[in-house]
Write a structure and sequence with these properties.
The protein is α/β, with parallel strands linked by helices. The protein is 39% helix and 14% strand.
């Protein structure tokens, strides 16, 4: 299976790439600036050879996204899975009274419009058997468990869950699995040192969701990395 991963240079993204490669898949690792601080990806390339492609992919640059999709199409490349992982977490612990709306605009551009751009241009390449689109979401995007804080991040993930649901309906006839996945509170640059979840464990669960096509039991396509239904 060929798997495209955005934000693949660090955190959960690099662990997703490593797990997918270890399980025999091929990976297109999308990073904003290939060649800059990509030591971990280069180490993976040294081990896995041409099963790893490191590609320039900035989710805010629609022209660049379209160019990469056209390049892969011209090479005859197909996709079995698309993982929208790239995201930012801004304005932490900021009250609504103090919120800089530019943080809101930037976050929505990356966390919501980014996945929309990627799906728009790469969906035609998602032609391998039993394909999947995985949108990395968060429990912060749950309406049921809303809290007053992390406004840009939480609202962007709530909107991303809606996009997932729309794609689920749209892709049913083609048999495309579409999931929003809460990866857990992970020990990464974004999650912080106190986070209890090992990102590699989360990555393993997410790749298994793609391979085993675990269907949520409820109405909504929102699960954690083990496949357990999340509150929408």
């Amino acid at each position: 299976m060929n798997i495209l991963i955005t934000g693949a240079g660090r955190g959960l993204g690099i662990e997703l790439a490593a797990e997918a490669l270890d399980r025999g898949h091929s990976v297109i690792a999308g990073v904003r600036k290939p060649g800059q601080e990509q030591d971990e990806l280069l180490q993976l390339a040294a081990v896995h050879g041409d099963r790893l492609t490191i590609a320039a992919l900035d989710v805010t640059d629609e022209e660049g996204i379209a160019s990469l999709a056209n390049t892969l199409k011209g090479q005859g490349r197909t996709l079995g899975a698309l993982i929208n992982n790239a995201a930012v977490l801004t304005a932490r612990n900021t009250s609504i009274e103090e919120l800089d709306m530019q943080a809101m605009l930037t976050t929505m551009d990356i966390n919501l419009y980014g996945p929309m751009r990627v799906v728009k241009h790469f969906l035609p390449l998602l032609t391998e058997p039993e394909p999947s689109i995985i949108n990395i979401s968060s429990e912060a995007g749950s309406l049921t468990h809303a809290y007053p804080g992390d406004y840009p991040y939480a609202i962007s993930k709530t909107a991303l869950n809606m996009f997932t649901q729309q794609l689920h309906v749209y892709g049913q006839e083609r048999g495309i699995q579409v999931l929003s996945v809460h990866p857990g509170w992970m020990h990464t640059d974004m999650g912080g040192e106190e986070a209890p979840t090992n990102p590699r464990r989360s990555a393993e669960g997410i790749i298994r969701l793609i391979e085993q096509r675990v269907a949520p039991q409820g109405r909504f396509m929102f699960v954690d990395y083990t496949g357990k239904d999340m509150d929408i």
